[in-house]
Design a protein that fits this description.
Length: 336
């Protein structure tokens, strides 16, 4: 399955307009924050991310008793080393809670399991009364494919096996993530289906990074414009896959846009921006799910760029996106 119409299809096409409110927030970014990621810059970029990205501790995440938080470590399994998980839930409600099994973004080369939790807990876990388990998967290029997706699978297995002890309802697990994490969530849905592993009830794919070929119309159209553009994307995929990047026989667990069988997958929520590099691969993935007889809710937010709701969390479009995700999660968790 391919999300675009061929190599170079978008060359010379003007980018879609950016929402006026989002454009103001985007203009406030530093030049360095908007610079594309190149292979030469990657080591320094990773070091800077590790140094500056928030990594709140357990006590900070507990927010004065508002949330119950603990760090967990799975045992090593086969070639997969122990995987660190951060489990968090609203304080108070007893009994097993549904689970959002969440995979952070960062282009497969950066990010951590802790930084995404403050917003997830306030905006999702608390209003929906669900638990969040965030995964500290290994990063490329130090740990290339299949390290990250195998870490995510090992963690999912462990959570399902220990759900009773953790006060979780394994039968109501949604897997989700943003950007690289969205791509990993899609890959994990395929992997657990094919291995007969835990069956999630939904997949929350936010601006998912799905296609190593990096050749859709939107990838070319937004080159040099999006906050995560074709150059950055190529750098990240090459770090993850090395010489296998673009190979015709790449498995779908590495790049879910390569999947030829999308049957028997959980319902998907897919969102992306109209002014985003990943637009066409996300739209194409939703279309492929529908063609396979699957269930997908697709939102293409007009004038939104990659990471718009992080850059401008108070913007009207960001609020609309959060509301739409929450409504979908509420329906899925209720079994509707």
């Amino acid at each position: 399955m391919r999300g675009g119409s061929g190599a170079g299809a978008g060359t010379g096409a003007p980018p879609p307009p950016v929402d006026r409110e989002l454009a103001g927030a985007l203009a406030a970014l530093t030049d360095r924050a908007g610079a594309p990621l190149t292979p030469e810059d990657l080591p320094a970029w990773q070091a800077r991310d590790a140094r500056t990205r928030p990594r709140p501790g357990v006590e900070e995440l507990r927010d004065g008793g508002r949330f119950e938080v603990c760090e967990l470590l799975t045992p090593a399994t086969g070639s997969t080393p122990p995987v660190r998980l951060v489990s968090a839930r609203p304080a108070g409600p007893r009994g097993p809670l549904p689970v959002l099994y969440y995979l952070h973004g960062g282009g497969m080369v950066s990010g951590n399991a802790w930084s995404v939790l403050p917003r997830l807990l306030r905006e999702t876990a608390e209003p929906l009364r669900l638990a969040v388990v965030s995964v500290e998967y290994r990063l490329a290029p130090g740990a290339p494919y299949p390290a990250a997706v195998e870490d995510c699978y090992a963690g999912l297995l462990w959570v399902a096996e220990h759900a009773d002890r953790l006060g979780l309802d394994a039968g109501r697990t949604v897997i989700g993530g943003k950007s690289a994490g969205g791509g990993l969530a899609a890959a994990l849905a395929l992997l657990t289906r094919d291995r007969g592993g835990p069956v999630p009830i939904g997949q929350l794919l936010l601006s998912p990074m799905l296609d190593d070929r990096n050749d859709t119309f939107s990838a070319h159209q937004l080159a040099g414009h999006d906050t995560w553009d074709r150059t950055s994307n190529a750098t990240a995929w090459r770090a993850l896959l090395g010489d296998r990047c673009g190979a015709p026989d790449l498995p779908p667990y590495a790049a879910p846009a390569r999947a030829t069988d999308l049957t028997e997958l959980p319902p998907a929520y897919i969102e992306v921006g109209s002014a985003e590099t990943f637009r066409d691969e996300a739209v194409g993935y939703a279309d492929a799910l529908w063609r396979a007889g699957g269930d997908a809710e697709l939102h293409v937010w007009p004038g939104a760029f990659h990471g718009f709701d992080t850059v401008a969390p108070g913007a009207a479009l960001s609020r609309d996106a959060r509301d739409a995700r929450t409504r979908w999660l509420r329906r899925v968790l209720a079994g509707r």
